[in-house]
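Ops channel
N.P.: pipeline sanity check, posting one input/output pair.
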């Protein structure tokens, strides 16, 4: 209580000294935030206090900008997705070939169109440029020979959604190259979008199963028609509907995503701790099992996602010290395991040479290691001052275009570089 009283007195004495207020905030952000709200209520006309209040509490009085879309426009977009999903039926192309190459191209360009329609445009030429890039990406993907045994082709299919997701951030940011603040907001939106999409997918799966079961009960088999005409259209349409729902009900999942990130953060930290022990007891398996490295990459991406969604949450400035320490532990464990995995990748490259898989895993691991290396010190400092959580989020946002560039290289350079092997 004395600390609060002393800080309140210092703030009151420095209402016309922005430099001193910034210094006080950096010294103890948590207490500063509590005190500034109290003082602002006493001096609501003070411009400097008003600026601090909206800096720290803006999300409570001004919800994130909605990405609403008119229902009729949504239906037109979904109709367009449905028509493209019918290309295999209309042209006779193999459905597995078409959707392996194009499923993400049925999602992200149309999500971008949703954002083009609803964000204030600061770059009128940007929508056309993005659509050209999406079209070129579709053309390059569809001229590639389909070979399910080709590592470079499979890597291309897996990395294309990442590249398109990063590109969509441009549309989200108002048709201009996104600032770090825009990217942080986009990462926050992505967490909500993933949760909403997962819920809709589960509901859609249950609805589909019930529909097929009911028709089977009256001895009418509709599985073939349902799969051909509705299944893939539904899979592509659900993420777009999720964007629409988040725009209409922005608070629907915004409080759920941080809780999910927190719960899985605890579980992931415990799992990584025991896995680290098991790994060092049997470290030879890492150097002999090629599948190990691919699983590692998925694991590290999951850890990075938890970290990013946690620190980009609007309420991260009010995060408890335990949660901050949890993020530090999670990041440190991931970095150490990543270092061991990197040594295994280098060993395998030295023994058997470069392959598409090894090169892709090497690049991803190096990027993740560098990103974590910059984030860990800021997370550590955030134990005492939440100001550094924002710095950690900005560091994650800075790397987003780098991940997009790497995904582009793996998607469109690797297949030709490795001769589609």
């Amino acid at each position: 209580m004395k600390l609060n009283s002393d800080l309140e007195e210092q703030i009151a004495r420095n209402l016309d000294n922005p430099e001193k207020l910034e210094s006080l905030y950096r010294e103890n952000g948590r207490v500063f935030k509590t005190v500034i709200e109290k003082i602002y209520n006493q001096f609501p006309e003070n411009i400097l206090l008003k600026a601090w209040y909206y800096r720290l509490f803006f999300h409570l009085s001004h919800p994130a900008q909605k990405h609403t879309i008119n229902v009729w426009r949504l239906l037109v977009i979904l109709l367009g997705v449905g028509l493209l999903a019918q290309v295999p039926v209309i042209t006779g192309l193999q459905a597995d070939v078409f959707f392996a190459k194009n499923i993400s191209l049925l999602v992200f360009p149309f999500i971008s169109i949703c954002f083009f329609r609803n964000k204030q445009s600061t770059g009128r030429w940007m929508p056309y440029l993005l659509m050209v890039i999406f079209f070129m990406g579709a053309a390059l993907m569809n001229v590639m020979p389909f070979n399910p045994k080709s590592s470079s082709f499979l890597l291309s299919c897996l990395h294309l959604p990442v590249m398109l997701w990063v590109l969509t951030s441009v549309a989200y940011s108002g048709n201009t190259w996104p600032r770090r603040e825009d990217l942080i907001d986009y990462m926050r939106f992505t967490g909500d979008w993933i949760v909403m999409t997962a819920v809709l997918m589960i509901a859609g799966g249950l609805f589909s199963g019930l529909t097929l079961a009911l028709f089977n009960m009256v001895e009418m088999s509709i599985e073939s028609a349902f799969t051909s005409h509705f299944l893939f259209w539904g899979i592509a349409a659900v993420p777009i509907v999720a964007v629409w729902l988040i725009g209409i009900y922005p608070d629907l999942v915004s409080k759920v995503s941080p809780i999910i990130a927190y719960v899985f953060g605890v579980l992931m930290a415990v799992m990584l701790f025991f896995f680290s022990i098991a790994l060092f007891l049997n470290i030879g398996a890492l150097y002999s099992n090629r599948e190990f490295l691919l699983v590692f990459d998925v694991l590290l991406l999951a850890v990075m996602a938890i970290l990013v969604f946690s620190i980009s949450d609007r309420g991260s400035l009010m995060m408890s010290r335990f949660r901050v320490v949890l993020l530090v532990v999670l990041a440190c464990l991931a970095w150490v395991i990543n270092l061991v995995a990197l040594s295994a990748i280098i060993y395998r490259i030295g023994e058997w040479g470069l392959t598409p898989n090894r090169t892709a895993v090497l690049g991803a691991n190096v990027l993740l290691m560098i990103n974590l290396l910059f984030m860990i010190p800021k997370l550590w400092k955030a134990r005492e001052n939440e100001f550094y959580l924002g710095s950690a989020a900005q560091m994650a946002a800075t790397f987003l275009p780098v991940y997009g560039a790497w995904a582009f290289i793996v998607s469109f350079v690797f297949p030709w570089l490795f001769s589609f092997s």
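N.P.: looks fine end to end. The CA atoms of residues 193 and 365 lie 26 Å apart.
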